[in-house]
Amino acid sequence: MADKSNGEELTPAPVEELVSLSSWQVPAASVRRTLREALTTFAGHFREPFQDGASTFEVESDIESLSPYQLRRFAPDPDRQCRAEALAEALDRRRGEGRKAAEGMSFIVTPPYSGVAESLTLIAEQRQWRVISPPDNLLLSEAEAEAWWDEQALSDGCWVIPELARFWLRHRSGLALLTALFGRLAAMAQVPALIGCSSWCWSFWVRYLPCQSLYPLTLPATTSAKLEVWLASLPGRRQASSLRVRQTNNGHWVLAGDVDTEANGFKRSGLLRDLAAMARGNPGVALALWRKSLRARPDECLSEDEQSDELTAVQPGERKCWVIPLDQLTLPLVPAGASREVTGVLHTLLLHGDLDEPGLKLALSLRETNLRLALQHLARHELIECSDERWQVTALAYPSVRRTLQGSGYPVDGF
Which of 109, 155, 230, 381 is most buried, taking the most CB atoms under 10 A from its CB? Predict the structure, then answer.
């Protein structure tokens, strides 16, 4: 897929196909990393790295974290338009050669940070489909919910719901809207529609309404092979494959670019395999971890003051940076012995994707003072962040949050 401006290629999205939800599998980690995670989980910390043994490689000691400018060059946000086009093409292929996406309903379940809701919104804009947004008030009676859906005229034309998690609240009066919708969807298989649903929202509703007749699709897990292509392409240049990344502690190649590692006797790192497993195949989490682990010498990239125009920056063949082992990452961790109020906030945020404070107060039945204390505690540990007055779990904290919730007995998603 090529951009029409500046002769650059757009960033490919890690979307080659859509698969049934039941066929999704988490990428496997290396045996070494699996053993280490078991030991460090038992010990209650993730800070102490394993030693890799003897190596003739001189460990790099003067490597710094990337500046915001360098991050925009080496690991920018994925191209939104390209990602939406890739998803649209995957939907069209799923429906058969020569058929249009408007021929039936597609229900897509994906984990947080996958970017599918944004892509569905862009697809709706491109194809001039109607986007259905939730009402301001989610606390409706059954009759009010049915009347609201009647007003949406779901049988008329093509429509999109980017994220179902916005249509409910875990409250005795906040379930009616989706209960009514799921009842209607059972008889609407041929209605032209696209519906996105977060994996945590879906995990709640398949328990609440176990007799679902929907057969969701999802994106396949992002494996190490996909990460190698995708991360190398993120800078968005014609020669993106020339991006070179080596591991700081042993010099092994993570992204070799155009270097023939076998011919030159260089070793390849297993970091991307462990990154895919650590992120559980989630590209958004993998990208956040990748950005956190990237390093560069001060003289390897021009500063923002020295280079105001990114298009005339260092040539692709000169692009190189480093990455620290994942064991050395300092990531947000849920504090040991976190209270039920704290873990309840985390679980509720994942169920709904994001929530404002009034919504959290209703869903958790917490006093305002207790809720604010819990939010401050979580924000201080960089487990959650606030944008447009809505709180959400951070991508960097997601592996720890999911692991903690599962260990504390909360129902978790299937991803």
Answer: 109
Beta pairing class for 64-65 and 294-296? antiparallel
Q: Are 353 and 198 in contact (CB under 8 A)?
A: yes
Separation between Cα atoms, residue 43 and residue 377, nearest integer Å: 23
* CATH number of the domain where residue 382 is located: 1.10.10.10
Closest CA to 275 of 244, 246, 245, 254: 254
- Judge whether 93 lies within some domain: no
Q: What domain range is 291 assigned to?
A: 28-76+222-328
Structural domain includes residue 227: yes
Question: Which residue, 218, 250, 265, sits at the end of a domain?
Answer: 218
Q: What is the full per-residue pLDDT of the chain (415 aa) written as tens digits?
A: 434 333 344 444 566 689 999 999 999 875 555 555 554 444 444 433 333 333 444 545 556 788 888 888 889 999 999 999 999 999 988 877 544 555 688 999 999 999 999 999 999 999 999 999 999 999 999 999 999 999 999 999 899 999 999 999 999 999 999 999 999 998 887 889 999 999 999 999 999 999 888 889 999 999 999 999 999 888 865 444 567 899 998 889 999 876 665 655 678 899 999 999 999 999 999 999 999 999 986 545 444 444 443 333 334 444 688 999 999 999 999 999 899 999 999 999 999 999 999 999 999 999 999 999 999 999 999 999 999 999 999 999 999 999 999 999 999 999 9
Residue 412 structure tokens? 């978790």
- pTM for the whole structure: 0.85
Cα–Cα dist 306/101, whole Å = 47
C-alpha span between 261 and 267 (Å, rounded)? 7
Where among 170, 197, 218 does a domain terminate?
218
* Extended strands (E) in 270-364: 294-296, 320-323
Residues 210, 227 within the same domain: no
* Tally of structural domains, the chain: 3
